[in-house]
Amino acid sequence: MLLTEVNHRVANSLSIVMALARMQASATPHPAAKDALHEVQARVAAIAGIHRRLYTSSDVRVVEMDTYLGSLVDELNSSLIEAERKHPIRYTGVTELSLPTDMAVSVGIAMTELVTNARKYAYPHPANGDIRVRLERVGEGKARLSVEDDGVGMLDRSTAQGTGVGSRIVTAMADTLRTTLQYQDGTPGTYAVLEFAVAT
Q: Which residue among 18, 32, 176, 187 has the highest number of C-beta atoms inside a 10 angstrom radius?
């Protein structure tokens, strides 16, 4: 009961942080600052979503991933509308995959960063296009998170675009999942994949 209340309060506090970032983004006239604040909002949403799942769950040790990532994609789509970006995010996922809380956080944050990266670089203005997110089981004891677009493809992955913060965050999340991020050139577009071990 106490842990449920703690998760509830943490989720509410993080929602306030998101609202403050949203208000500041609306108030600033600088596009780069707006983008940075929307990215902060998305990162906080990934963590807040975990706490919302936990305080409504009968088992706080695990997170049901289909519901969690689906709600996180909804948050990201709302953020894109506020940022006036026309790149809808579409999610498909397995219905029966629950992960320990720490793994779920890593997957959620990694997905958020990969989607943000695709939103920023896959479709140069004024091009439009969607971003597809999928979580699935692959083989025995493994899962795969993929983020795919039909944009310009990989230009040069040896150097980070922008500040490189997003790339460092994804690398850190991959490390916690004991895996590495793999990129594949699409025809057209880019396909980013994280495969990691899960309990059978």
A: 18
Domain boundaries, the chain: 2-197
Within 13 Å, how many C-alpha atoms sit on residue 146's CB side?
19
How wide is the angle at C-alpha 69 spanned by C-alphas 64 and 73, nearest 5°?
Answer: 155
Largest interatomic CA distance in the chain? 51
Residue count (the chain): 200
Give per-residue pLDDT as tens, 75-130.
888 876 655 667 889 999 877 888 998 898 899 999 999 998 888 888 887 788 89
Angstrom distance (rounded) from CA 120 to CA 113? 11
Distance of CA 37 to the CA centre of its chain: 15
Under CATH, domain 2-197 is a member of which superfamily?
Answer: Histidine kinase-like ATPase, C-terminal domain (3.30.565.10)
**In angstroms, rounded to a whole number, what is the distance separating the alpha carbons of residues 186 and 51?**
35
